[in-house]
Automatic annotation (TrEMBL):
<dbReference type="GO" id="GO:0015667">
    <property type="term" value="F:site-specific DNA-methyltransferase (cytosine-N4-specific) activity"/>
</dbReference>
<comment type="similarity">
    <text>Belongs to the N(4)/N(6)-methyltransferase family. N(4) subfamily.</text>
</comment>
<protein>
    <recommendedName>
        <fullName>site-specific DNA-methyltransferase (cytosine-N(4)-specific)</fullName>
        <ecNumber>2.1.1.113</ecNumber>
    </recommendedName>
</protein>
<dbReference type="InterPro" id="IPR029063">
    <property type="entry name" value="SAM-dependent_MTases_sf"/>
</dbReference>
<dbReference type="GO" id="GO:0009307">
    <property type="term" value="P:DNA restriction-modification system"/>
</dbReference>
<keyword id="KW-0680">Restriction system</keyword>
<keyword id="KW-0808">Transferase</keyword>
<dbReference type="InterPro" id="IPR017985">
    <property type="entry name" value="MeTrfase_CN4_CS"/>
</dbReference>
<keyword id="KW-0489">Methyltransferase</keyword>
<dbReference type="GO" id="GO:0032259">
    <property type="term" value="P:methylation"/>
</dbReference>
<dbReference type="GO" id="GO:0003677">
    <property type="term" value="F:DNA binding"/>
</dbReference>
<keyword id="KW-0949">S-adenosyl-L-methionine</keyword>
Amino acid sequence: MKTIHKIIIGDSRYMKEAPNESVHLTITSPPYWQLKD
């Protein structure tokens, strides 16, 4: 069985280009840049 893997780096605006039910894993980085310790 041949599989195809693809890494896409971008924000959620690019998700409109992905076909329905084509994403099996999503890794995110929440926008914490404005928070202070």
